[in-house]
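Pasting as-is:
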Amino acid sequence: MAISVGMHEAKTTLSRLVDAAQSGEEVVITRRGEPVVKLEPVPSAKPRVSLYGSLKGQIKMADDFDELPEDILKAFEGDDPDDPLC
Protein backbone atom coordinates (compact mmCIF):
# COMPACT_ATOMS: atom_id res chain seq x y z
CA MET A 1 0.00 0.00 0.00
CA ALA A 2 1.38 3.42 -0.94
CA ILE A 3 1.32 6.33 1.47
CA SER A 4 0.48 9.65 -0.17
CA VAL A 5 0.77 12.85 1.87
CA GLY A 6 0.69 16.55 1.17
CA MET A 7 3.73 18.79 1.59
CA HIS A 8 2.58 20.31 4.90
CA GLU A 9 1.80 16.91 6.45
CA ALA A 10 5.14 15.57 5.18
CA LYS A 11 6.97 18.39 7.01
CA THR A 12 5.23 17.60 10.28
CA THR A 13 5.54 13.80 10.04
CA LEU A 14 8.88 13.39 8.28
CA SER A 15 10.32 10.92 10.81
CA ARG A 16 7.30 8.63 10.52
CA LEU A 17 7.44 8.81 6.73
CA VAL A 18 11.16 7.97 6.67
CA ASP A 19 10.53 4.98 8.95
CA ALA A 20 7.76 3.82 6.63
CA ALA A 21 10.01 4.14 3.57
CA GLN A 22 12.79 2.19 5.31
CA SER A 23 10.26 -0.54 6.12
CA GLY A 24 9.44 -0.93 2.43
CA GLU A 25 6.38 1.29 2.14
CA GLU A 26 6.09 3.49 -0.94
CA VAL A 27 5.87 7.09 0.28
CA VAL A 28 4.77 9.79 -2.17
CA ILE A 29 4.69 13.49 -1.29
CA THR A 30 2.25 15.62 -3.22
CA ARG A 31 1.90 19.33 -3.94
CA ARG A 32 -1.62 20.52 -4.66
CA GLY A 33 -2.68 16.90 -5.13
CA GLU A 34 0.01 16.12 -7.73
CA PRO A 35 2.80 13.64 -6.84
CA VAL A 36 6.18 15.39 -6.80
CA VAL A 37 8.55 13.24 -4.70
CA LYS A 38 8.88 9.58 -3.73
CA LEU A 39 10.89 8.62 -0.61
CA GLU A 40 13.16 5.60 -0.96
CA PRO A 41 15.73 4.18 1.44
CA VAL A 42 19.40 4.50 0.48
CA PRO A 43 20.96 1.05 0.00
CA SER A 44 23.41 0.22 2.76
CA ALA A 45 27.08 -0.23 1.85
CA LYS A 46 27.24 -3.36 4.00
CA PRO A 47 24.45 -5.83 4.64
CA ARG A 48 22.79 -5.59 8.03
CA VAL A 49 22.35 -8.77 10.01
CA SER A 50 19.07 -8.16 11.75
CA LEU A 51 18.12 -11.60 13.06
CA TYR A 52 19.98 -14.06 15.23
CA GLY A 53 20.70 -17.21 13.33
CA SER A 54 20.60 -15.58 9.91
CA LEU A 55 24.00 -17.13 9.07
CA LYS A 56 22.86 -20.63 10.02
CA GLY A 57 24.37 -23.18 7.68
CA GLN A 58 26.95 -20.75 6.28
CA ILE A 59 29.66 -21.20 8.94
CA LYS A 60 31.55 -24.48 9.22
CA MET A 61 33.64 -25.68 12.20
CA ALA A 62 36.37 -28.27 12.02
CA ASP A 63 35.38 -31.70 13.34
CA ASP A 64 38.14 -31.53 15.97
CA PHE A 65 37.32 -27.98 17.10
CA ASP A 66 36.70 -29.01 20.74
CA GLU A 67 39.81 -31.20 21.02
CA LEU A 68 42.83 -29.57 22.69
CA PRO A 69 46.14 -30.71 21.16
CA GLU A 70 48.38 -32.57 23.63
CA ASP A 71 51.32 -30.14 23.30
CA ILE A 72 49.10 -27.15 24.11
CA LEU A 73 47.62 -28.98 27.11
CA LYS A 74 51.11 -29.76 28.41
CA ALA A 75 52.15 -26.13 27.95
CA PHE A 76 49.16 -24.97 30.03
CA GLU A 77 49.82 -27.53 32.74
CA GLY A 78 53.59 -26.84 32.83
CA ASP A 79 54.48 -30.43 31.93
CA ASP A 80 56.32 -29.72 28.67
CA PRO A 81 60.01 -30.71 29.06
CA ASP A 82 60.89 -28.88 25.83
CA ASP A 83 59.60 -25.53 27.18
CA PRO A 84 62.33 -23.65 29.11
CA LEU A 85 59.72 -21.78 31.15
CA CYS A 86 58.15 -24.93 32.63
